[in-house]
Design a protein that fits this description.
- Helix 8 runs antiparallel to helix 9.
- The protein folds into 3 domains: 65-157, no CATH class; 173-237; 251-310, Alpha Horseshoe (Serine Threonine Protein Phosphatase 5, Tetratricopeptide repeat), CATH 1.25.40.
- With 310 residues, it is mostly helical.
- It is 78% helix and 0% strand.
Length: 310
């Protein structure tokens, strides 16, 4: 009985040990199976990704530097940034659209400045549009204006600017400069009536000022104004309409002014006031530089003055 019991116990021990070993082997094999599955899945994912077409880089949404320059009113800088970028990247549709929008902004600004009679600034912006819009091709159709109209705008600004500068010079008493500005404008745009009308107006006002100076016995100023009038009528007669004064009448007035100053100088000379006499006679040479008699009188008076000093 004891032997039987011992045998059964031994059999149970062997059975349990066997089951334990089987279980242990099963547990050891499971992690390896999971690892293989994971590696297989990762391999398949990589294969799928590799087989898909690669996406290109997203197009730029804008040029911050250009946008900042545009917002601050630095239109020249903004257009240059857009232009330089598109020259290297012509297929960037978004940037091209922004560039065209910037050109429209500059055009509106130029128009506004012209309306305010700020012709110099307006001219600068119109010329910018010509510079940066010259190679647009079919893209020009997307603009709110026609590039072909810009030369007319530029011409209009130049004419108005020249006329404005001439007026400022005339108002400041710079008569000769005003005339020269108008003549310069006429040579560039001979068909512009605005220049012809203003030149005629300036010369008539100079004639009126000369007559007033003559009436008030301001011989030096009258002579200078008549001399300028004579010079203008002689040199620029092709641009002028019939003038109320003839060259003979103007010459007569110039001669009268010279004679009056000559007499005043002689009065001072006879009094012994040599400096005063010289100063008066030198005024004659401003409008009669060819007056040899006065040149000799001045030389004589200066020589006498030097002797007195010694």
């Amino acid at each position: 009985m004891k032997t039987t019991t011992s045998s059964m116990r031994a059999l149970l021990s062997i059975t349990c040990l066997s089951l334990l070993m089987v279980s242990s082997c099963s547990l050891l094999k499971r992690p390896a199976t999971n690892k293989n599955k994971i590696e297989k899945a990762e391999s398949q994912e990589k294969s799928v990704v590799a087989s898909q077409p690669q996406k290109s880089e997203a197009p730029l949404s804008g040029l911050p530097e250009a946008e900042e320059a545009l917002a601050s009113g630095a239109y020249s800088a903004a257009l240059e940034i857009y232009y330089a970028f598109l020259k290297k990247n012509p297929d960037q549709g978004k940037i091209k659209s922004d560039f065209l929008a910037a050109l429209d902004i500059v055009k509106r600004e130029a128009d506004a400045l012209k309306k305010k009679e700020k012709y110099s600034s307006a001219l600068f912006y119109y010329e910018l549009l010509v510079k940066y819009g010259q190679n647009l091709g079919q893209e020009e159709e997307r603009l709110s204006f026609r590039l072909a109209d810009l030369p007319k705008e530029i011409r209009g600004c130049r004419v108005k600017l020249q006329r404005s500068e001439a007026e400022k010079a005339f108002q400041a008493g710079q008569n000769e400069q005003a005339i020269n500005l108008i003549i310069s404008g006429l040579r560039e745009y001979p068909e512009e009536e605005i220049f012809k009308i203003y030149l005629d107006q300036i010369l008539k006002e100079i004639a009126s000022s000369a007559q007033r100076a003559l009436d008030s016995k301001d011989w030096a100023n009258a002579g200078k104004l008549y001399s300028l009038l004579k010079s203008s009528l002689t040199k620029h007669k092709t641009y002028l309409s019939p003038f109320p004064l003839t060259l003979e009448e103007i010459d007569k007035s110039i001669k009268n002014c010279g004679q009056q100053l000559t007499t005043l100088g002689l009065i001072e000379y006879r009094k012994g006031n040599l400096k005063e006499a010289i100063a008066i006679w030198e005024k004659i040479l401003v409008f009669q530089p060819e007056n040899e008699e006065i040149k000799k009188a001045i030389q004589t008076a200066k020589a006498q003055l030097e002797k007195i000093k010694k």
